[in-house]
Amino acid sequence: MKFPFLEKRDPREKELLLRIEQAGPGEADIKAYIELGYIYLVEARYEDLLHLYAGSMDIEATDIERAEILYNMGVCMIELKSSRPALSDAPETSGVAMGEAASCFVAALELLAPHSDEVHALELTALCALYLTDEYEGEKAEAYRERGLRALLLIPENFPDFDRLHSIYHLIERFYLLSKDYEEALAASLKSLEIIKATWERDQSVEDDERAYSLLCVGDASRLMKKYDEAEAYYEEAARTCKRSKTYLSEIYAGLGHLYEEKGNIESAIESFLQALDKVHYRPTLVRATDYQSSIEYSVGMLYESKGESRLAIYHLKNALDHIAPDSHDYTRLLLAIGRSYYKLNKFNSARDAFKGAVDSKAIEPEELVEATYDLAITYDHLKEHKLLIEELEKLIDIEPKYEKDASVLFRLGVAYMYEDKMARALKVLEKILANELPTPKREVVIYFIANIHLYFDREPLVRKYLEKLEDEYPKSPLAEEIRGYIKKRDEGKLY
Description:
Layout: H1 4-7, H2 12-22, H3 30-42, H4 46-54, H5 63-80, H6 101-112, H7 119-135, H8 138-158, H9 165-178, H10 182-202, H11 208-224, H12 228-241, H13 246-263, H14 266-278, H15 289-306, H16 310-321, H17 329-344, H18 348-360, H19 366-383, H20 386-399, H21 407-419, H22 423-435, H23 443-456, H24 460-473, H25 478-491
């Protein structure tokens, strides 16, 4: 019997496992663990990798080898988006427990620090710093970015014959992109392309896909500098050059999608992004596959929403949501977008659920909390859930005081109080609209409601005052006649 999935396995796996299993006490080869770990990482076999490395902690290794294991474990934990429970009792390295991705990268950097004269240590330093730059914000992120970039810049200077120098320039470009230094990023990507082309001229066995990736990087940097014609030409040449790697093709089409999106060519942007998604199950380079797929699905969803095609927008936004951890900021952003698309379709129950999820998220930013609370409140209004509407509007005014003078919010709150028979509160809110001369197209209705509330409390002079105000400002208002009708019913004992 044949098992097709085994044919996709790296043929080196069996050999490396035998080396590991047959090693006697003190004979274990750490290099076999590292090489097999990379295979598992590329194949997304994260649990296998973590269990493999759990057995490598007592094996003799150099600082750089141990740092490489820590780096791979950190990447694996990020992909799993959780600490590994299976290794909760694993030994500590450099005094840092290995249950957290950031701790792995920090521990690796400690081990690498004394080895700035070795090219592999410099490359690993940059890779660890790259992930830590993504992990942290502010000064801490900037410090890691600078550390990684310094390490990379030492490589061309001190190791000009390094056989993967073009890849180092790709990384240099990545760090410059993080700091939005697009000119330096473009220079780095052009240098990488120059090296690849020169190598290809000497030795045409150089993979076409390596040239394609260099072209892709130049295209990305050119696009970010808004050199759209040049960027498009590089992307198109990259697509023609790429022969095998669907990973690179996916990224090329994603780059074209962003380019067309920025130029306002929505149809071409959607078409390019969909081609990128078609190949996204292959792991993108230096990007977490789930984040990569989610970002493209989000772009497609928002493009469809801009066309008014909310159903297609929801489909892609939900796909994006499936690939994001619930405790991430991007998850909250997606819930808001999904809620607004449902709202436009008048699917208020689904919109409510999405907005409620966003409001309850621990990762929500303060500005988004204001937006989500407002959206949730308005949705409750459509659903006639007045108690919940009151709760959200009161919360909204509490977290964003500007809404204390927002006539639309005050009007909705006042009406909700009336539905809940909280007339005194309703009166206070509605009178605030008139007292502050807040602009509203519903002013006529506000005066009408105030008159009715005074009628409810049997305050004859105030009823007359607001009735006269209504007739003065809106001489032909049918609402004035309604109030007179209520007064008549009251006098006849038929009102309540």
